[in-house]
Amino acid sequence: MNRRRYDVVTLFPEMFAALTGSGITRRAQERELYQIAFHNPRDYTSNPHRNVDDRPYGGGPGMVMMAEPLELAITQARSEQLQTLGTSGPVIYLSPQGRPLDHERVKSLSAEPSLTLLCGRYEGVDQRVLDRCVDEEISLGDFVLSGGELPAMVLLDAIIRLLPGALNDASSAEQDSFADGLLDCPHYTRPEVYHGLAVPEVLLSGNHAEIRRWRLAQSLKLTRERRPELLDARELSKEEQLMLAKLDASKENA
């Protein structure tokens, strides 16, 4: 079994109980698809108060996480990866300054045997840690959170659900939004009519070819309405081009 290992450098390892304690990520851990370990920078300090932050040079508000405790924690994480797997993976810092996360990057990271995730706090971390230890910075979007723990959990959740055996139905991941570069189509379940709203007849027809075409058309429609830039970056098939032409024609005739 190609079990993955994920090491997290964080001041708040208890937050990750939300990841390991429920849902797909809990079951994947129980199936031994991945191992997760935590490294608290406070355990790598040399001062009696276990301080991991200090005032920024040049002045300004807030505090900055010091370089040494973070680097020692990262070094320990990579050492343990080498001992257990024979290799150590990239070190990723969760940061608003990082590359925006997308599904393609999640897929590539899910193939890595190990990762070390660095969760910052306060005003950030000493730049020298990034220069010496970090391979990549990743952002969830153009906003600021209190720390890197929630982004790290989001990243891990997205990665873990792609691991072979994590989902009871492997095809579920293939049909998710962004899995093929489009937004997902609408989904329905019982009852057939809810408050006067009926399930589209095509989904009740049993005609799998027509159902596939309907779902593709709906995905194209939603993507054009909500995320048109995804279509601009996509190489459309002839079928998709025809569907979009029909959507445009129906808009003009409306």
UniProtKB/TrEMBL annotation:
A single GO molecular-function term is: tRNA (guanine(37)-N1)-methyltransferase activity
Task: From the Swiss-Prot or TrEMBL record, state where the protein is found.
Answer: Cytoplasm
Indicate the principal place this protein occupies in or around the cell.
cytoplasm
Q: Name the UniProt key words of this record, in alphabetical order.
A: Cytoplasm, Methyltransferase, S-adenosyl-L-methionine, Transferase, tRNA processing
User: Which organism was this protein described from?
Assistant: Azoarcus taiwanensis
Under the subunit heading, UniProt states:
Homodimer.
* GO biological process: one example: tRNA N1-guanine methylation
**Sequence positions that bind S-adenosyl-L-methionine:** G120, L140, G141, D142, F143, V144, L145
Q: What is this protein called?
A: tRNA (guanine-N(1)-)-methyltransferase
Q: What is its EC number?
A: 2.1.1.228
Known CDD domains for this protein? Answer: TrmD-like (cd18080)
User: Ranges for the tRNA methyltransferase TRMD/TRM10-type domain?
Assistant: 5-232
Q: Which reaction does it catalyse?
A: guanosine(37) in tRNA + S-adenosyl-L-methionine = N(1)-methylguanosine(37) in tRNA + S-adenosyl-L-homocysteine + H(+)
Recorded GO CC terms:
cytosol
Question: What is the purpose of this protein?
Answer: Specifically methylates guanosine-37 in various tRNAs.
What family name appears in the similarity comment? Answer: Belongs to the RNA methyltransferase TrmD family.
Matches recorded under InterPro entries: Alpha/beta_knot_MTases, tRNA_m1G_MeTrfase_C_sf, tRNA_m1G_MeTrfase_TrmD, tRNA_m1G_MTases_N, tRNA_MeTrfase_TRMD/TRM10
Q: Which NCBIfam families does this one have?
A: PRK00026.1, trmD
Highest taxon of the lineage: Bacteria
EC top class, in one word? transferase
